[in-house]
Amino acid sequence: MPRIAISEPVSEAIVYTSGSSAPRLDTTRVTLRFRLVCSDDRSLDALRYARRAMLREESTLGVAEDEPSLEEAIFSASDIAWSVSPLARERCREKLEELVARANRALADDSAAGRSARAPRPRTP
User: Fold this and answer.
1) Assuming Cys at both sites, which of 12, 39, 73, 115 could form a disulfide with 82, CB separation 3.0 to 4.6 Å?
2) 3, 40, 119 from 115: Cα distances, Å
């Protein structure tokens, strides 16, 4: 079972009023909010490590035009908030899912390595 998970609360839809005399702004932003569920401090450390790795990849490889950077997301111990354009919402969700998957894999690998390190050594005669 994964130690780290995110959930997105139901949010209100963006509503544009028709017939308004105000010009529609193309710079509209929405804030995605996610509840972060971590089982312990090791989980938070794994999440931080995975985020740093993804930020290094963005820095090295760059991001596509109009693609949101993970650097803009605001993390706390229990929440993630990310202000993005409405068209980038799905890509942001994908990035956060990838982040959580990487962190959970790191925890699983660490647990597997810890189990093998704690395994009793065979006795030699």
Assistant:
1) 73
2) 17, 18, 6
- Reading phi first (left if > 0) and then psi (alpha if -120 to 50, else beta), residue 12 is in beta
What letter would DSSP give residue 30? E
> Model pTM?
0.75
Q: What is the mean pLDDT of residues 79-97?
A: 93
Cα dihedral 45→99→105→2 (10° resolution): 80
For residue 74 the two structure tokens come to 């605001």
d(CA 106, CA 112): 10
Tokens matching residue 64: 């596509």
Q: Which two tokens stand for residue 47?
A: 């999440």
CA distance 13 to 66: 21
